[in-house]
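Protocol step 4 of 5: obtain the predicted structure for the target chain.
Materials: sequence only (see below). No template structures provided, no constraints applied. The aim of this step is simply to have a reference model before the mutagenesis design in step 5. Sequence pasted as it appears in the construct record:
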Amino acid sequence: MSSAVFEIRWNRILRAREQGQEELTDFLGPRADLGPLVRLGLLRRRERNDEFQRYHGYVPTPKGSEFLLHIPEKELILVRQNRGAALMTALRKDPVPEAVFKPTFAEPTHDQFEMVRQMREQAGRDVWRVQRADHLRDRLMEGFMDFRTFTKRTGIGEGALLRHMLCTPRAEKSHERALGLAPTPSGERFLAVADPWELLLVKPGMELPLFERCDPMAAAYHCALP
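Step 4 output (structure tokens):
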């Protein structure tokens, strides 16, 4: 980071402190872990990398904006005034506190949003397909990942979910567009289904844990990274 950018950021942090706000990593402490914020759907991976980005490219979700103020031009995330105690209470509700989390594993999400754009363009006048694309975009903004994107990156498909008993085949489909499988109780740790749009989604922050669950040897390298 250049000295000019650092100075601009530092001056904004000082002003934030005067206003009762606190920079996110200062709030979390020297051994800050973004994992709980991501798993709670308060942070998501941004669309593109930026030269001076902070927080490993994570930015607040709409839900996270209740607690966090994002200042894009200064690459700053601040804890809002008088929201620190509420944020700490929320962090204690981390759904999977023992899950492995490596912020460097998550990739920019531009390709996922581009897929949504293409889905919407190809939907034509099919209202269900239009709504499906719009709903997927909303879930991406919340930090979820379409399972197809996960498969493209890791090579792990629906067959692996069945073999590892994370999903079971549906006995019968309610309609021709319905998913052919459903998460088991074990699979619900990693996966969610968005009805009635028949979207199989990886939960926020659970991409690497799911990879590790299905292919521990291939995931080991990423789990060992800082």
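Step 4 remarks: DSSP finds ten helices and ten strands in the chain. The beta strands are 22-23, 43-45, 58-60, 68-71, 76-79, 145-146, 167-169, 181-183, 191-194, 199-202.
Proceed to step 5.
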